[in-house]
Design brief:
single chain; about 450 residues; mainly beta; Tachylectin-2, Chain A; 4-stranded antiparallel sheet; 3 helices; about 10% helix; elongated
């Protein structure tokens, strides 16, 4: 979405280029819809919120949402993109988080007057309801036609009718690591004041990192001296190029962050999770990534999933009676027409967690395989596929002859485990020595040497 941060004339050209490039990236996949991730399950009826009618203020996309539960209903603020790319912010309501009604007064936060700091685009809102002051508060990103951006602040008695702070923007780009743009913010109110996690964004490189700021009043902010406090992982990993759009929650003395990650410019993006005891020093979750793209040409989120916004069961149980963690996320196919989806999480799958621990380094671009020997003489094989594809796992001897086929089936993206008991297709034990395990998809191959001791 780097076009959003470019001057208007460049943005229109850039958007057309991105559309063309995304179509090129689309390869062949089986004609099957991917139903969900391994731990977060996507709702079968996704997307739950779509872009508007031709000619509307949200004709091209509806995405970048923020969500909460107030007075017995969900409220979702989201970004609508028209043909002109002058994005604005709308609101929708729902009783179940699935069936949404858009407000008739949308967009509820509109562009500022000509020459103002938010005259060209409004995106990346973060909303909270201040229970002490009984008022909704929003922090949103605004920009000019020249591509100059900041974060503004506004208040509302009902989440629909907003009054912008006259001193906007309240946060500007001031540090070298921020490049030219800051965005994707998440805000918490605590006993000591407000905390904000936000991303820098370099549109020309499609690159981002995450920083932190604190404020006594939500208006005057001090950026952390150690910024950025969360950066891309090592190159080659699934989030080794950029991390963006944090969603922060605090419970039981632990901060949890859901974030968007990708491993090359304008590449496939997935959603991960990290934890921290202080909100500054973060550790990536072993089960990452927690939500991946679908891989069918017909799927609405085949290209990118991003902008996770989560409501934890423990946060709202008294008001909502939830038994599930819930996530609303943005997704888009290669046509770039963004929409909003819903996912839910049951109790943790510990077997799945163990499989993920065996393969800590995954990426959107390749298969992964780990082999472990057992005392019984058999081998545990853990593998990962980022694609919906027919996967085969085959054992060969040194002469290149097939010894045994362990897997030959269509797998959804995710982590898997199989076992080789050291026998061939006729169930005879093989002799000791060097063998090769080959994992193959339609267009990719990975081979690992293994040793059988007899």
């Amino acid at each position: 979405m780097r076009w959003r941060f470019l001057p208007r004339a460049e943005a229109l050209i850039e958007y057309a280029k991105i559309e063309a490039e995304a179509v090129k990236q689309q390869g062949f996949y089986p004609d099957v819809l991917f139903p969900g991730g391994d731990r977060w399950f996507k709702f079968y009826g996704n997307p739950v919120l779509s872009a508007g009618l031709p000619g509307s203020w949200e004709e091209k996309a509806a995405d970048c949402q923020t969500i909460g539960f107030y007075n017995g209903q969900y409220m979702m603020w989201y970004v609508g993109t028209p043909q002109s790319l002058h994005c604005q912010i709308g609101v929708a309501t729902s009783r179940d988080g699935i069936n949404w009604t858009k407000h008739p007064e949308n967009p509820v936060i509109r562009l500022g007057p000509a020459e103002s700091w938010d005259s060209s685009i409004l995106i990346c809102e973060a909303v909270l309801f201040d229970r002490e002051e009984r008022v909704f508060k929003i922090w949103y990103v605004g920009g000019t036609t020249g591509g100059v951006f900041g974060i503004g602040y506004a208040t509302s008695p009902d989440g629909i009718h907003w009054t912008k702070y006259p001193g906007n923007p309240v946060i500007r780009v001031t540090e070298p690591w921020e490049g030219r743009n800051i965005e994707g913010q998440s805000v918490l109110k605590t006993a000591s004041g407000y905390k904000m996690w936000y991303a820098s964004y370099h549109p020309r490189q499609d690159q981002a990192s995450i920083g932190y700021a604190a404020s006594p009043d939500g208006i005057h902010w001090d950026k952390h001296p150690q910024n950025p406090i969360f950066v891309p992982d090592q190159p080659g990993r699934w989030d080794g190029y950029s991390v963006d759009e944090p969603d922060i929650h605090y419970q039981d003395g632990i901060y949890q962050m859901w974030y968007k990650g990708w491993n090359r410019p304008m590449g496939v993006s997935w959603i991960g999770r990290a934890t921290s005891v202080d909100g500054i020093h973060w550790e990536r979750a072993p089960e990452n990534p927690v939500l991946m793209t679908a891989n069918s040409p017909q799927a609405w989120d085949v290209f990118q999933v991003y902008r996770a916004r989560v409501i934890l069961a423990t946060e709202w149980q008294g008001e909502m009676g939830q038994v599930l963690n819930r996530m609303w996320y943005s997704g888009r196919p290669y046509s770039l027409k963004a929409r909003l989806g819903y996912a839910f999480q049951f109790m943790p799958d510990y077997k799945d967690r163990e499989r993920r621990k065996k393969i800590p380094l995954v990426t959107q671009d390749r298969l992964a395989l780990t082999v472990e020997s057992k005392s019984s003489g058999s081998l545990d094989l853990y593998y990962f596929t980022p694609w919906l594809d027919k996967i085969s796992v085959v054992i060969y001897n040194q002469a290149g002859q097939k010894v045994k086929t362990l897997v030959n089936e269509t797998n959804f993206p995710g982590f898997y485990q199989t076992i080789w008991d050291g026998r061939d297709e006729t169930q005879r034990r093989v002799s000791g020595g060097v063998y090769f395990c080959e994992i193959r998809s339609a267009n990719h191959l990975l081979t690992k040497e293994i040793t059988i001791n007899r």
